[in-house]
Design goal:
By secondary structure, the chain is an alpha/beta fold. The protein contains ten helices and ten strands. The protein is globular. The protein binds 2-amino-2-deoxy-6-O-phosphono-alpha-D-glucopyranose.
């Protein structure tokens, strides 16, 4: 895991967005796994700004959303369809047929989940999966106790998640979500978290054991997982100084042989 701790949430949004921009610019037909939630609003804002400035072109991009509530119409302001259109799709040039989100009103739920997996595979799999994290450590809607190998399926949301996402409004209790097994097949994963309220989930995800009690901890088993957080979300990390040193010395860390070569040449 690469742990990137940055001074402010704006830095976090920028760092995560730049990774997406650089992938889209170098890979034709990139498949982006997208997420929703308050945190992602900051990421989408930076991406829109880059798009408006002509720094990125999404015309060949395929997007695959992590999850969607069951039982809402796509126009419902609470739905992730609505969220994605409002905050991203309506403002960029991603083709309609390349915007994949689970159907919130499927005739056959099991088939919808199977078809979603097939659709991802048909596009060649996810190149970069963007993730937020719930306070309870969930990724997508894989709540604590979710199988670490699960595929796309229906999950029941916990009371904590319902409260976080809907406050006192009554929200849908069920959602279709990519499973942790599906997420782990993405070639690269970028998890973004900001604020003190995520500090506990981040500490368990990064430094705790790999456990279904904290679904985000599964990322410890992914070969290219990046956790981009602000200092508030990093507050409970025991090895914070180490992660910061590695990030500050990234160039040397990636090419340590050059450092030793320089030393040898000097002596
Ligand atoms: C929802 C989404 C998750 C997201 C989480 C955190 O539950 N299904 O994908 O990570 O919210 O959202 P926020 O950024 O609002 O804290």
């Amino acid at each position: 895991m690469e742990i990137i701790i940055l001074p402010s949430k704006e830095d976090v949004y920028k760092e995560a967005s730049e990774r997406i921009i650089s992938l889209v610019n170098r890979l034709h037909n990139a498949v982006l796994g997208l997420a929703t939630g308050r945190t992602m609003l900051g990421v989408y804002e930076v991406l829109l700004d880059a798009y408006r400035k002509g720094r990125v072109d999404f015309s060949s991009v395929v997007t695959v959303n992590l999850d969607e509530y069951l039982g809402l119409s796509p126009e419902d302001p609470l739905s992730f369809h609505h969220y994605m259109h409002e905050h991203f799709f309506n403002h960029v040039n991603i083709k309609k047929e390349n915007q994949l989100i689970p159907d919130p009103l499927p005739g056959d739920v099991e088939k919808e989940c199977e078809d979603y997996e097939k659709a991802i595979n048909r596009r060649g799999g996810i190149d970069l999966q963007l993730l937020g994290v719930g306070k309870d450590g969930h990724i997508g809607f894989n709540e604590p106790s979710s199988s670490l190998q699960a595929r796309t399926r229906v999950k029941t949301l916990t009371d904590e998640t319902l409260k976080d996402n809907f406050g006192s409004t009554e929200g849908p209790r069920f959602a279709i979500t990519m499973g942790i097994g599906t997420i782990m097949e993405a070639k690269e994963i970028v998890l973004v978290a900001v604020g003190e309220e995520k500090a506990d989930a981040i500490s368990r995800a990064v430094e705790g054991p790999v456990t279904a009690s904290c679904p985000a901890s599964a990322l410890q088993l992914h070969p290219i997982a990046k956790v981009i957080i602000d200092t508030a979300a990093a507050r409970l990390l025991k090895r914070k100084d180490y992660y910061m040193w590695v990030w500050e010395h990234k160039k040397q860390v990636e090419k340590p042989h050059l450092l030793y070569k320089k030393k040898r040449d000097e002596s």
